[in-house]
# Entry
Amino acid sequence: MLAHGVGGRQDLPIPFGLAVAGAAAALVVSFLVLLMAWRRSRFQGDRSGRPLPLAVSRAADSAWMRWTLRVLGLVAAAYLTVGAVAGPDLATNPTAGVVYVLLWIGIVPLSLLFGPFWRLVNPLRTLHLLLCRAVRLDPAVGMRALPARVGLWPAAAWLVAFTWLELVAPDRATLPVIRAWFAMFVAVMVLGAVVFGARWFDHADPFEAYSSLVARLSWLGRRTDGRLVARNPLENLDGTPVRPGLTATVAALLGSTMFDSASASPAWDRWVQESAVPSTLAGTVGLFTAILLVYLTFTVAVRWVASLAGSEGRGLADHFAHSVVPIVVGYVIAHYFTLFVLEGQRTLVLLSDPLGTGADWLGTAGMTENRWIAGQPTLVASIQVGAIIVGHVLGIVAAHDRAVRLFPLARPDCQVPLLVVMVGYTVGGLLLLFAA
Amino acid sequence: MPTTRAGRHPAAPATLAVMLVLTACGADDGQGDAGAADMPVTTAPSALPDTPDAAATPPAAAHEIEVAITDGSVDTAEDSVEVALGEAVRLTVTSDIDDEVHVHGVEQTAELSAGSPTTLEFTLAEPGVYEVETHESGLLLFQLIVR
# Structure
């Protein structure tokens, strides 16, 4: 157990026929979108949406609601810290399950349902806020201004660091390793916030970055006038702020998920086992290669599209990077949803007894885990392929609309390089589901 | 000397089958149902004598897998072994060091003592992919694909 991350059984490989059918569907739909879809941009991003009742908008933004969420985040973090610091370092300790399953995978469904929730519960943001209140400083004002070109680059770097912990670090499910990583993380986050003000979290917190990006596929959004609205997820996605480092951020998310499933294959394990390369080094190189591969293919494809459209391609990748978010979400659902359901329940059971004393603090210790989904390989395979394909189609549509907005005069076939790269991500995802 | 950790497991289904047969027999007693009455007559003679020996001689249906570990290198016939859901797996591991073998995802673990084969028998109840590994040396022996 401890040699791995979390989780025991893995999903069966998807049937070959399903993988081929999925790949064919992705290819056909992509070119249909290219040929048939609109030629003038349709999306209005953050200007769109149907307003929620004013009372709902006000309640969500009220001070008491904000403080309730902050306190919730602090209490949850404190509870987790008890088990992480004082609990026994055994497979029955809930810490690894909470970090890798409930938090890391749970960010996706929660952000799809409630929007960028991690900003609101982020215990480090609250900690910084309380620190500032204690010394009567404005939390928004730091000692230094953060240059605009920093963008999401620190968050991208922290995403790489977190996925390295999750997928590569030796003994990554053990407490000393998790404690050491988070001690460093908390120190850098809080220090950064003291120096640059609370906006540091917008730029650097990997969980906020992840949550805020996935929230761009939510039904819930905020209009430019501040009102909460219900809107088409594609409109929401179109409103993703274009910032430096956005491409690197989505590349870290997609590349790490690709690496996770590639490294779960027996071929990879056997290779690492038999080569003289230490497994941590092999894993590190593998993870970085996967992320870099996504980053480079995407950047080159966008530059190519721009040059075909007769435009200067520099820095344009960040204008298209939002279209990778649905592909990321599709991958995450495909690769982790059974793990989330099964290990999530197990973690909830363990969470009642973080100190290993036989306690039942949350009343979940006696909960029976529902393992029905584990016995439904056909349903699981369909959901996996379905999630990948839906993610792909949303991504293609988002990229198409952005292309016709940025290059209104260009012929639609200038988008082909980007389309090919996105089909590549999707077929890669299906191949990994088939082979690993 | 071989350690047979899960050696008693095959006995359980056999015993259960016999109990069911006996119960069915009791329930049908005197009913004169030809189809049901045939069952115990044909199965009982073959099932009953086997029962005491079941722990020593596993059912022929068990999927046999043999693994040898030498100098941290794994020797198996296949990296991925496919078994049917509910099919018994009989795994024999011989390691050149003291170690522990573990079927990841289920509570199946056995001690390995250097040089002597250890046999582990189990049945997987859920479809999926399970890694079989050693704890001390941290080696992946093979993957079990249960369909």
Remarks:
- The mean pLDDT of chain B is 67.
- Chain B has two helices and ten strands.
- Chain B touches chain A at residues 72-74, 79-80, 104-106, 126-131, 133, 135, 138-140, 142-143, 145-147 (CB under 8 Å).
